[in-house]
Amino acid sequence: MIKKKIAIVGGGITGLYLGYRLAPYHQVTIFEKNQRVGGLLETFRPVYPSWPIDNFYHHFFPSDQRLIHLLESLDLPYSFKTPITATWQNGQINPFSSPKDLITFPHLSLPSKFRLGAAITLLKAIPDYHLVPDQEAAKVFPILMGKKAYQTIWRPLMRGKFGPLHQKISAVWLWARIKKRSGRLGYPEGGFTNLTKAIVEKFTSLGGKIKTNQSITKISQLVGFEKIIFTTPKKILDSVISESNHPSKGAPYLASLNLILLGSKPILKNNLYWLSIADNAFPFVAIISQAGLIDKKNYNHCYPTYIGGYYQQDDQILTASPKKVLNQFAPFIRKINPQFEAKDYQAHLSKCLWAQPVVTPGYSQRIPSIKTNSRNIYLVNMEQIYPWDRGINYALEQADKFLKSVAPNSRLV
After folding, report:
1. What class, spelled out in words, does domain 5-58+192-250+360-410 have in CATH?
2. Using CA of residue 360, residue 366, residue 371, residue 377, what is the dihedral sign?
């Protein structure tokens, strides 16, 4: 088989995995605009000896079999834990990890709790998303689980994540989140950076090349490549090939911002892992304490804590400094932990402009195709993940769909 020269634009997990799978058969070069590959799996190291810390919080579920298979094939150990989760509502923390927590939840009547519990059981039992009405969740879920339950629990969370778009989100998207959710969460030993490193090592050992600090803005930069695979948002692909008059039909995205605080004092008490903020006066939607999932000894007995959420792409917070974001967040952190003092923590800020596609009714008819109008250009990205939410497992699945449909036996047609 004659090897083709292939360019992959984007060095996140999708691009790296595609390169790893294609490198045995072709000459593959990955172009990444940042200094390092990894994308949303990028990490940083604190000043003290520690596992690398993810720029964005991650975990996986027992049902993420594609990711688990990849970890095992690369000899990367991992473990599962059942961490404690809760919600912040009406000025207090309410555990929300188990059926018992639902029964003791103070903000719903007993009939509302039973109806909500029955609705969640039903939603988890639905085998296929085609059985879920493709209408706004704000219309479907109050009917299914009761208006009070939706307004008390789900609406604040939806509004916190999607802002003014929360009423337009498809019920299919919310069903998929509930269907997928599991109490047991997994994490690789040493962090997700070991997954990135292992793939890079395999890819380069097979002759693959990685070019960082390479922002692709014109298709002419890729002259000489027989096939080009973009793993970027559709709108970025369209801007690169705009000379061909391709209309931009990509999904709208939300940006993500995480303020990561490192200190010897826990911000969340009682070994709590995840605190969802059901209060739209807060400028963030969740607090995640990594020590609630991974033993703090792996972080030099410090408590890496993520505070942030999703924002409109033009939100001014995305241009703010770590100090400014910390000053904005601090009064709200103190509502949850009155002993919080900003001076006790190192602050690190991570941002991603293209973090969350906005899934509205009819999204399945608007999913961009893998094959573009240009015969040698392909698109593989998180906009194509449906009905599940974006995540590592489904990035791998989407890459495998591309390989199966376009490159069976790794012969790119």
Report:
1. alpha beta
2. negative
Rounded to whole angstroms, what are the CA distances from 240 to 9, 105, 331? 11, 51, 43
pTM over 0.90: yes
Domains of the chain, by residue range, sit at 5-58+192-250+360-410, 98-182
3-class SS of residue 354: strand
Among residues 262, 260, 274, 266, which one has the least CA distance to residue 325?
260
In this structure, whether the domain defined by 98-182 belongs to CATH 1.10.3110 is answered with yes
CB atoms within 10 A of CB 124: 12
156: nearest Cα among 248, 240, 87, 258: 87
My answer on whether omega of the bond before 387 falls inside 30° of 0, hence cis, is yes
Say if residue 242's pLDDT is above 90: no
Distance between CA 67 and CA 396 in Å, rounded?
7
Q: How many CA atoms lie within 13 A of 254 on its CB side?
A: 21
Whole-angstrom distance between the N-terminal and C-terminal Cα of the chain? 12
Name the burial class of residue 88, with classes exposed (0-12), middle (13-18) and buried (19+) by CB atoms within 10 angstroms of its CB: buried
Taking only the tens place, the pLDDT of each residue in 54-98 is 999 999 999 999 999 999 999 999 999 999 999 999 999 999 888
| DSSP codes of every residue in 78-130 | EEEE--EEEEEETTEEEE-SSHHHHHH-TTS-HHHHHHHHHHHHHHHH---GG
The DSSP secondary-structure symbol of 153 reads I
**326-371, pLDDT tens digit by residue?**
999 999 999 999 999 999 999 999 999 999 999 999 999 999 999 9
DSSP tag of 251: P
CA 261 to chain CA mean position, Å: 20
pLDDT, mean over the chain: 93
Distances (CA, A) of 231 to 72, 200, 371, 381: 25, 16, 12, 5
